[in-house]
Amino acid sequence: MMKKMSILVALALLLVVAAPVQASPRQVESTTIVAVSKNDSVTVRLESFPANETYYVLMNVNGTLGINGYLSSKITTNKGGTFIAEFPIPEELSSESIINIRFEKSSGSSNPPYNWFYNENAAYNPVQSSGSTTGNYNVREAYTPWFTTTQVVRNASITGVTSNFPESVRVVVYVKDGALANNNWIEVSGFNTDAGGIQTVTIAIPSALINHDILAIKFFNLNTNKTIFVNLIDNLDYP
């Protein structure tokens, strides 16, 4: 009887040890280009960055992903979350039309956040923030144009809600391969904004971009010939 009890206790302990641990999902850092002052600076919105971490901001020529780039700045997060910061464009890149920007942790990172931008004067998402890196600015400004993705059907469509878009304008939507810093935007649809600039939009993924893992999406204001919003979206079923 004692032998049977010992076996049962051993099995119970084994089951406890082998029980899977439910890990909390890891927040992934993301970046959005907010504005560019040609040859001078780029303003970036950083999201889901961890608190109390130091990042080196590197820039390099197109196609390098910012690896081994010129040091533009160093930024230390406070509470993490979302904030906006402005970074100078190194003089060595002043003749480049497309620049790659990379954020590397001083403690090391296996997958540093990366983005790219056209070295041309542009205000993709106009903001009124000073861009200071020392204050508590971890909440996105309420007046910033934004597109919140609510559903992605891989290789088929992207659905989301616009907010703070200009009212009563014609918007054209473009999509491209987000993994490549090229200018091969494909026009996919268009719509007229209503009062308040809030509406649900479904965007078809072009056949030319099927099975591309990262897509770039751009909303362009035909009335002013200016970009309203640009961001990268994973071509994965969501939610």
Radius of gyration: 22 Å
Number of domain modules:
2
CATH superfamily membership of the largest domain:
Macroglobulin (MG2) domain
CATH fold-level name of the largest domain: Immunoglobulin-like
What is the straight-line distance between the termini? 52 Å
What's the architecture of the largest domain, going by CATH?
Sandwich
Share in β-strands: over 45%
Strand order of the largest sheet: 5-2-1-8
- Tell me the series of helices and strands, N- to C-terminal: HEEEEEEEEEEEEEEE
Main sheet makeup? 4 strands, antiparallel
Total count of helical runs of at least 4 residues: 1
Which blocks of ≥5 consecutive residues have pLDDT under 50? 1-26, 125-141
Indicate the structural class: mainly beta
Summarize the structure in short.
This protein has 239 residues and is mainly beta.
What would your notes on this structure say?
It is a single chain. The model is unreliable at 1-26 and 125-141 (pLDDT under 50). The strands form four sheets. Strands 5-2-1-8 form a four-stranded antiparallel β-sheet, with no helix packed on it. Strands 4-3-6-7 form a four-stranded antiparallel β-sheet, with no helix packed on it. With 239 residues, it is mostly beta strands. The protein is globular and about 45 Å long. The protein is built from one helix and 15 strands; from the N terminus they run αβββββββββββββββ. It has one helix at residues 2-18; strands at residues 30-37, 41-49, 54-61, 70-76, 81-88, 98-105, 114-118, 122-123, 146-153, 157-163, 170-177, 186-192, 199-204, 214-221, 226-234. It folds into two domains: 30-123, Sandwich (Immunoglobulin-like), CATH 2.60.40; 146-234, Sandwich (Immunoglobulin-like), CATH 2.60.40.1930.
